[in-house]
Amino acid sequence: MRFKALLALTLVAGALGACATTTRLDAAGDVHDLLVAIRDNDRATFDAHVDRRALKYQIESRLMDEARQRGGQSNSVMALAALAAGPLADVAGEALIRPETFHAAANYYGYTPDRPIPGRVAIASTLRPTGDGRVCAAKKDGPCMLTFTREGDRWRLSSFDAQAANLYLKR
After folding, report:
1. CB-based contacts of 71: which residues, under 8 Å, 6+ apart?
2. 137 phi/psi in degrees, rounded to 5
3. SS3 (DSSP) at 152
4. Which burial class, exposed, middle or buried, applies to 132 when counting CB atoms under 10 A from its CB (0-12, 13-18, 19+)?
5. How far apart are CA 163 and CA 140, in angstroms?
6. Measured CA angle at 130 (ends 129, 135), to 5 deg
7. How many helices (H) and strands (E) does the chain have?
8. 3-class DSSP state for residue 129?
9. In degrees rounded to 5, what are phi and psi of residue 147?
């Protein structure tokens, strides 16, 4: 009886592990395409693999967090920040969400013009499932700088951890 239960648990664990591997392999193709687009300044491919709305929302949230930290609990500061955050995020998004901005991240992951491009399996090994249907790109024990979400037929960049990038890219 115990053997059957152990066998069943092993099969379930193997199936779950295979799902995670399949997800990472699936995402790896789109992550590869995005990083090559960044390296080559290919705006059309870059735009196809980026969720601009999610990244602009992230910028807006960051602006609100900064206002909260600097303005404390002042209602007038927060009201002004709430009014300005959306338009400022739109402007910042247009200025920042482009291939040139992400060159340092592409270089960090090994996508430099002087190196061969890693294959899908190598990329999949650097992707971590985040538990919410998303995957993030990370080196070994490094931070998740780029997070991808499946939208329709492709995985798109939906989050970028600028603080982690500042810490690790400056090394």
Report:
1. 77, 78, 81
2. -90, 130
3. coil
4. exposed
5. 18
6. 55
7. 7, 4
8. strand
9. -120, 140
**Closest alpha carbon to 137 in 118, 117, 152, 157:** 157
Q: Strand 154-160 relative to strand 146-151: parallel, antiparallel, unpaired?
A: antiparallel
Rounded to two decimals, the pTM is 0.72
The tokens for 26 are 């699936």
Structure-block tokens of residue 7: 């066998």
Residues forming a β-bridge with 149? 134, 156
Query: What is each CA distance from 89 to 31, 60, 63, 150, in whole angstroms?
Result: 25, 5, 8, 23
- Residuewise pLDDT in 10s, the chain (171 residues): 544 443 333 333 333 343 345 678 889 999 989 888 888 889 999 999 999 889 888 888 887 777 777 766 677 766 776 777 777 777 777 777 888 888 877 777 777 778 877 888 888 988 999 888 899 888 777 788 889 999 988 999 999 886 654 444 444
Query: How is residue 15 written in tokens?
Result: 């199936």
